[in-house]
Write a structure and sequence with these properties.
Helix content: 40-55%
Largest sheet: 5 strands, mixed
Distance between the termini: 26 Å
Structural class: alpha/beta
Strand order of the largest sheet: 5-4-6-3-7
Oligomer: single chain
Shape: globular
Number of helices: 12
Protein name: ABC transporter substrate-binding protein
Length: 302
């Protein structure tokens, strides 16, 4: 089960299925769209989905409250969070946000980390106006000119805006201002992992190979989304969205490694940031390794 309705970031799963990479590992993969990382995490905890692709910090919030879930691989090791507006508005750095209007979705992952971005960049809430609404309202606010910027993922909302208007968007990325936090990864039910260790290994092997294959052929990978899901978007923005996702797979520490091999330092920093700014229970800091494992990943470098 994916984290959301299909968009470019999801290309490797569809490409891996289309290319027979999952079948070669003895896996008959069914890909379901999601309705948010929290909902997908609940489905995995309840064993109604075998694996989930979710925002790992969102999974941590559920796990620390007792949900039996663990990340078996962290794919996005650099945060895709950003504040974005139309290129022609010329908002390129935090200073440019002053006097502008920012559209947010209350309680989503980005809004929780936004205060940290403000602190890191010396901005204050009083420097700009805020409008709030659900995901679609937020998009519409920028498209219709009611807001100058929105908080969104570089490869998701930017492409939705471009699909709707044909205009390019410029993202001010949180990661460029020292906010080093993991994002999407594969999760599974902890009991399911223990009971099906060989299957989890095969699934992570196939998914690693699928990501590596998709990285080499971004347009073909994006096309596999449309082949499976003809209403899944437009080929140009699906391709561009996936191409914007690829640089988020690795940090300076993991640039030579195969996908999913997150470092302990990255995960510990992510837990600490989530405790301080993201509403994660402070007891999470006692054992960051409780939230993830690299034990089921294929070995070796890229």
């Amino acid at each position: 089960m994916l984290n959301w309705y299909v968009y470019g970031e999801h290309a490797p799963f569809y490409y891996g299925k289309a290319k027979g990479i999952y079948a070669a590992e003895g896996i008959d993969l069914e890909i379901q769209e999601g309705r948010g990382s929290a909902a997908t995490t609940q489905a995995v905890a309840a064993k109604t989905a075998d694996f989930g692709y979710v925002d790992v910090p969102t999974m941590m919030r559920a796990a620390v409250k007792g949900a039996p879930v663990i990340a078996t691989g962290v794919l996005l090791q650099t945060s895709p969070m950003s504040a974005m507006g139309f290129v022609d508005k010329n908002i390129r750095k935090p200073e440019d946000i002053k006097g502008k209007t920012v559209a947010i979705t209350p309680a989503d992952s980005m809004t929780q980390i936004w205060p940290l971005f403000l602190k890191k960049t010396g901005l204050k809430e009083s420097d700009f106006q805020t409008v709030a609404g659900d995901g679609q309202t937020k998009l519409n606010a920028v498209i219709n000119g009611q807001a100058d910027l929105l908080l969104g993922y570089v490869m998701d909302q930017s492409m939705k805006i471009k699909d709707a208007t044909g205009k390019d968007v410029y993202p001010i990325k949180f990661a460029d201002y020292g906010i080093n936090m993991v994002s999407s990864g594969i999760i599974a039910n902890s009991d399911y992992v223990k009971a099906n260790a060989d299957l989890v290994r095969r699934f992570m092997s196939a998914t690693t190979k699928a990501v590596e294959a998709a990285e080499k052929e971004p347009k073909a990978a994006a096309q596999s989304i449309l082949d499976a899901n003809p209403k899944g978007g437009k080929i140009d923005t699906l391709t561009q969205g996936f191409e914007l996702t690829i640089p988020l797979y690795r940090t300076a520490e993991t640039k030579a490694k195969r996908p999913f091999q997150v470092t302990d330092q990255n995960m510990t920093e992510s837990v600490n940031l989530m405790v301080e700014y993201g509403g994660l229970d402070a007891k999470a800091k006692a054992n960051p390794k409780a939230f993830y494992t690299n034990d089921y990943l294929p070995k070796g470098n890229s």
